[in-house]
Amino acid sequence: MILRWDSLKGQEAATAALQQMLRQEQSPHAFLFTGIEGVGKRLAAKTLIAALLCQENDRPCGICSSCRQVELEEHGQMQVLRPEGTAIKISQIRELLPRLLLSGGQSRFFVLIDGAELMNQEAANSLLKMLEEPPAGVYFMLLAQRLEQLLPTVRSRCCLVPLQKLATPLLNDMLQSRGFAPEAAALASSVAAGSLGEALRFLEEGRQTLRDEVWQALQASGKAAWRLGELWGKEERPKVQLRLRYLSLLLRDMLVLRQQAAIPLFHPDLERDLYQESQQWTDKGLTQALHAVEETRRNIRFHAVLRLALEALWLAVSEAKEGSGFYAEGNRRSF
User: Among candidates 254, 244, 249, which has minimal Cα distance to 266?
Assistant: First the structure.
């Protein structure tokens, strides 16, 4: 991706604010780019770094050696930190100090921390000391999906740059411009819920098959609750989190159809089947199931026992459906 401001699609507000800051030469020493995965946080941060290092008139030009090195994360005045395993550790933060001291304020140096909310407590406290007394010429670029997981003291010392979810029509255009067929692009744009990264993975990594498996599990949940909990409990947590994301969106679509709300579906290709399944639920039952899914997503993020959490979830989903009663409120819409 060429590092130019016009490459940041759908982020006009953030782009304008950053460009204005550059024009006024008012660059804070720490930035915090936030937003869901796949909306351009990394691209925005690297574009800002390139703009501060580029020597051309139209900064960043995107094509000079400096811009290209930033894009490839190979620039000598740039260090990138990512989680080692599941966390960013204090040893990674401590290893920064010699490089920061070597910069000596003579030239700009940039630290990009990708997944900043995954810093453990020791790492976050160590970074906080650097943010409180930053070495001259050093800039910190933090990227985080879940702002609430960062220490409030770390957040307060950064200039917040929120990035928005991408509109479905924009996602559709972006996917078609990459060569995807209109029908496939339209579905991926809906399922992605504002994330280009998610849309691309849906198309390129077989995630539609995974989504369909979740849909089949939801339809059979009353008969197979314990088996589903056992089967999903054997999988890696990232895959389980993805399954739960699709489960949440499917339940949400069913609730939209029951209430005849004028809201686009995440899964328009399943509309007829979603409607038919929704008639076996009440609004209250669907809401209860949604709450159970979201609570499970939070719990397994913080190291709950996976199998037990999933068995409890599917039991809750089954009870919510059984409590609804078949055609409990009658059909509200027909096809």
Answer: 249
List of the chain residues with pLDDT < 50: 326-335
Q: Cβ of 104: how many Cβ atoms within 10 Å?
A: 11
Count the residues in the chain: 335
Q: How many CB atoms lie within 10 A of CB 182?
A: 10
Res 324: pLDDT = 64
Q: CB–CB of 165/35 below 8 Å?
A: yes
CA distance 306 to 230: 9
Q: What is the pLDDT of residue 58?
A: 87
Main-chain dihedrals φ then ψ at residue 193, nearest 5 degrees: 55, 45
pLDDT given at position 86: 83
Cα atoms in the 13 Å half-sphere on the side-chain side of 83? 11
Q: Which amino acid is present at 228?
A: L
Backbone dihedral angles phi then psi of residue 34, each to the nearest 5 degrees? -125, 160
Number of alpha carbons in the 13 Å side-chain half-sphere of residue 151: 15
pLDDT at 70: 96
Q: What is the C-alpha separation between 291 and 286, in angstroms, rounded?
A: 9
Residue whose token pair is 């930190």: 81
294: number of Cβ within 10 Å = 13
* Coil/strand/helix, residue 30: strand
Q: Please identify which residue in the block is written with the tokens 């650097």.
A: 130
0.85 exceeded by pTM: no
- pLDDT score at 1: 79
Residues 281-312: tens digit of each pLDDT: 999 999 999 999 999 998 887 777 888 999 99
CA pair distance 150, 120, nearest whole angstrom:
10
